[in-house]
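Mods, move this if it's the wrong board.
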Amino acid sequence: MDRLNVKISGFPNHYQTEPKLVNLNTWLHSDKYKDAVLKLRATTDKEERKTLKEKLPCITPSGIFSPKRKEDCLVEHSGLIQFDIDFKDNRNITNYQELKLQISRLPEVAYCGLSAGGNGYWGLIPLAYPTMHKAQFRALAEDFLKLGIVLDNAPKNVASLRAFSWDEDAYFNPEAVPYRRVKREVKETYQPSFHQEDTDEGKKVELCLQQIEKRGLDITAPYSDWFAIGCSLANEFGENGRDYFHRVSQFYPRYSFREADKQYNHCKGKGYRYTISTFYYIAGQHGITYSEALKAERILKPQSPQQPSPKKEPALPAGWQYEAWDNGHKVLIDEDGLPAAWNLKPQSPQQERTIKAELKRLGLAEAEAGKLADMAEGKEDEVVKLVEVFGLEVEQ
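Not the wrong board. Structure tokens:
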């Protein structure tokens, strides 16, 4: 049985989505676009290479699609799955140039050749269970990984494209053995770190996430919403928003930690103009708001006794300062080195106001201050005793 003699969908280039029928075996042996492929391989500019590759004709090796190239538009599976090996993902392989020969020894490989760009290899393997395309790809990727080879993940999608390529030494085995292993998907779960930004927005987002997690609610569909959520969290919290993004994404039926992490990197690195309000808006479309939860939290939160605001001390006149005396009391000293409370002849309105404030703080009337000043005349060394004699209650 010739595994490669099957009908598949073909497209004029990467941009066209309306298919036409193509014979896979004829396509693989054709050299019609050889010159275009060689031009691509000779080009070093990254953007130009991308443009040239996207202009090449393409096929969907895994089947016929109608009316569009989409997973849910599969009409008939070809019985084949493609594998794609990129050099950038396999730099650990020291004999990379010999990789095609090694792969060709596998009995399940029906075709193996150079990719369009010339730096990778691609091939085709017949499947024992085409209706389990994704499950068989997972197993295939696992088996290649055991050989130290990392496969590109794109062919997991049955509608993935393959650009025209040319390899005069391509390997063909139309009698290849169908690959039989299946690896069922294990639903990934995310273990959040429950990191919370200590900001108003962080608290609001946390309240929304708690509701989402309690309800097990997916608010990330369609993709445009998922993208907008990632950008809004990235712009508001930077790297600290990554945990929030996984917590939002985890309820998507096909959640993948790797894909979500990759998406957040994209959102964080491009500077798209989304604000945190976008997240609140999308959450609100699903009945998730922070306002009621915030109100309830404030009601339930025990109120701590309100502390009086510390009094702001007025500016002191030039040369005046507080000193700590030997008995632990704090006393205001004027520019002459004497307690301001003794000064009965202030030289300015500021000094007058300061003296009155000091007398009040010490609990003295002006008359008592005058008496204290008389007693202290020439007796500066006995200031502490005088304070104690007059029973001053000086603030510590």
